[in-house]
Design a protein that fits this description.
Number of domains: 1
Distance between the termini: 41 Å
Strand content: 15-25%
Order of helices and strands: HEEEHHEHEE
Oligomer: single chain
Structural class: alpha+beta
Number of strands: 6
Number of helices: 4
Strand order of the largest sheet: 1-4-2-3
Amino acid sequence: MRRYVENKVGKRYLPQLYCLTDDPRSIAFDTLPSKFVVKANHGSGFVRVVADKKIVDVQSLVSECQGWLNIDYGQCYREWGYIKLKRCLMVEEFAESSYKDKQARSAENPFVRQLRKRPGHAWKARWPLPAS
């Protein structure tokens, strides 16, 4: 996808890519800037924004990333586009304006999507109505 965007509109629209890996233990956290984003390519919601790496629990983040990689999003959610995708993690530049825009859009949206897993059941999605 990055190559496609670069070819269509130019590299300037892409955040800087610091690391691309299929093993979260290989991420060189000590070389990353103080703010960055970690995300997986094979599903929705596999994103962790690190606004201050001094306070991030690296072991917890590595474990979370490994958990993402263990989920077969295509099978779990019947999303055909993800079924044969090679799973990987991307560590990218933190784009302050995008993060603030997303927070603002979320604040304006009264509906919230919650995903939870119950023992023995698939992930369940709920969209609660806002309090009136």
